Amino acid sequence: MSNYAIVTGQGRSGTNWVLDVLDASRQTLCRNEPNVIPGSPFEALGSLKTMNDRELLDEHWDAIAAQTCTTVGERDHRLKVDKDYIHTLSHKLGLPPLMARPKIRKLLGKTVLPSLDGHIWELPSVVGSKERLEQSYGIIKVNQVPLLVDWILNERPKVPVVNIVRHPCGRHASFMKRYLALADPDEELARTREVLHEIGNLDPVWKERFGSIDSMNHAVSQTWLWRYVNESIEESGVGKTMYMQIIFEEMTADPMPHARAVYDLMGLEWTPEVERIVEQGLQESVWGKLAGTPSEVASAWKKSLGIDHVKEIEAILAQSPLASNWD
């Protein structure tokens, strides 16, 4: 199978930006959260947030990674560069963007390209080359999966892992605006509490740290989950040559060196075309045009997040070894 890397974080922390940076390369196939797509091979592992079955990973992971890096999914970002695995004529005819549009893809799947009629599909031969796709560098973005990351760092030490960590206040402000505003707040709080209970059942140390889970509000529960995810991944990455931690606020203050460092870690070629596309991407996100510079967006929580939430979050952050990143 082709080489691949893992991009991870807690979500709403800059993982989409890193994925877009890597998608600027002609060499890559970037998969966005394939683990949450119905019918994904990840289903063999159950819930990744709390899965702790290393034998299951021993048995299934290589096949999951291989299938993920040779297929395309409905959550993948629209291509902004001519990929090596796409036929030149397909690029000229604009076929790849059409596949990224759900209604058109569904129509094609029910008429001339039945392989597109699903949540995950193989690359149609009229669009690209399966052989070249298998030679691409796979990027698998999966969030909130510290136990999977620990297994990969120890059992597949040649696989690069990039973990993006955002200040929990900034992360929570983004979570409230971009996610919670579109979800049922009560259901989401119940889900977060349930995840924390499952983590506590797996690890008595974290159970004691959490305290009374069922009395937590959104800010408190999300920040404890932030601590568990990021501290666990950082602990797993200590001393690992293929592990890279990126602090979101440092990345937004000086994006290009961080982008190049990610390319260097993965052995990808940095070209003028890549630099141009990455530079263009600093003005927008998957949600649309940015309302300011990346650095301004990163610090916007200082004006938007309520003082009570800030106090709750910073009290939990103060106990974390990660707090020194924002001294």
Overview of this structure, please?
- This protein is 50% helix and 10% strand.
- The protein has 327 residues and is of the alpha/beta class.
- The protein has a single domain, classed as Rossmann fold.
- The strands form three sheets. The chain has a five-stranded parallel sheet with strand order 2-5-1-6-7, sandwiched between helices.
- The radius of gyration is 20 Å and the shape is globular.
- The N and C termini lie far apart (43 Å).
Architecture blueprint of SSEs:
Layout: E1 4-9, H1 15-23, E2 28-32, H2 54-68, E3 72-73, H3 88-93, H4 95-99, H5 102-110, E4 120-121, H6 130-134, E5 137-141, H7 146-155, E6 161-165, H8 168-178, H9 185-202, H10 204-210, H11 218-237, E7 243-247, H12 248-253, H13 255-266, H14 272-281, E8 284-285, E9 288-289, H15 294-298, H16 301-304, H17 307-317
Parallel strand pairs: 1-5, 1-6, 2-5, 6-7
Antiparallel strand pairs: 3-4, 8-9
Helix pairs in contact: 7-11, 9-10, 9-11, 11-17
In the CATH hierarchy, the architecture is 3-Layer(aba) Sandwich
Q: What's the story with the biggest beta sheet?
A: 5 strands, parallel
Spatial order of the strands forming the largest sheet: 2-5-1-6-7
Q: Say what oligomer this is.
A: single chain
Query: Which radius of gyration do the C-alpha atoms yield?
Result: 20 Å
* Gap from first CA to last CA: 43 Å
Give the overall pLDDT as a whole number. 93
- The top-level CATH class is Alpha Beta
Order of helices and strands: EHEHEHHHEHEHEHHHHEHHHEEHHH
